[in-house]
Amino acid sequence: MTAPPMAKLDAHDACSAPIRQAGSQGRCHSSQRIGLTFSLYARNAVFFVILMLMIDTWLVSGIVYPIRVAGPSMMPSLDGPRFEIACPQCGYPLCWCAATQSFANCLERARCPNCGTRLARLMTSGNQQPQPNVRAGNPVVILKGLWRAWKRWDTVAFYNAGEHGGLTVKRIVGLPGERTEIRDGVLWADGRLQPRPWEVQRSMCVPVNLPRNREDSVIHLDAASSLSQWEVEATHNTVTTYCHFHPALDQYEKPTRNLILRFSLERFSPGTRLHIRSRFGSGHVEATLTLPSEFSVVCFDESPDGTSTKREQISGKLPPLIGEGEFAVSLVDQHFLLIVNDRVITQMFYAARPLAKPIQRPFEVIVERGSVAIHNLGLWKVSCYDDEHRWADPLPGYYVLGDDPHVSLDSRHFGIVAPDRVIGRVIKWPF
Length: 431
Ligand SMILES: [Zn+2]
Hints:
six-stranded antiparallel sheet
């Protein structure tokens, strides 16, 4: 006689019940363990198969498509093939594009952005010629995306036609339907200035001058002592649009105001007033930080006869400074930005006249009250769009530019990229 269905149900229920009899406990546990182990294996196997299928589908169908950067036009946000050596004078890691120039020519003409030394001078004084590491371009992946709505400042890959054909990586700066223009070194869309956002500036900036900026170098500024001010100087020929990735190429050098001051605030006495003066050629911005919590920013326009007029003032609260505060002041694209821990605290447009000569002391750091210790102080710059280019009709697609406009072949040369040619957004690998 077979057991009634109720009895089976009871036995099963006994195992899953919270209180069980001692005799049935071991038997139930071993069968449960076998069941659990099997289900774990089965689940892992299914998960593994799905994972392999997903990876395979992605790579095969091209939702994720790995490539290597082959050219120099997106340096420094995406590096192409390059030579890497350490500066024989100061040890600063130097990096030169290897796709467009020979190492010997670079050595002949390069200048270290950290110590300002011309490397040719070191070579003629009897030093042994350094041997570079030759690196391939950055590995990147193309994310195809499902909605295919690309935004301004996205780095995208597309298939280009004609003379500059093939898979190409550039940054979108103009969107379909806009009237895009490059004028006065900045980008305009429908008559509105389009400054590069901080995330883009950060990925594009290169060092100009890192004075006495060693790992162990800390600058102490004290209002009560003689050292209360630090002028961030720049040698006369480095505050230009010249890019040190291409020392052997004849580049058109123009004075640039696309400068960034960066430093880390190691410590400060509460109530310290730290003053940063930023000069943009036809005026200056005075930023005052009352540490740890307040800031104020005032912009002054200067007339050619030297008189200055206060134009705009913004004040507010700083975010809480936990540990070291990373500060940056940017003058890129006719906008002053105050950045704390990678967050834009305030920004202000400044009207700029063309620069006749490079700005000698673009930034001054002054302690008016209290004391601070700062390190990693350095002057950086972002490439400037030197030439003028105008697209008078609404764009039929995307207007794209390389991050280094001096060597980039982009929409200024091959025109607009049709939306259906864009494959996807490019991101660095590993992320
Ligand atoms: Zn050096």
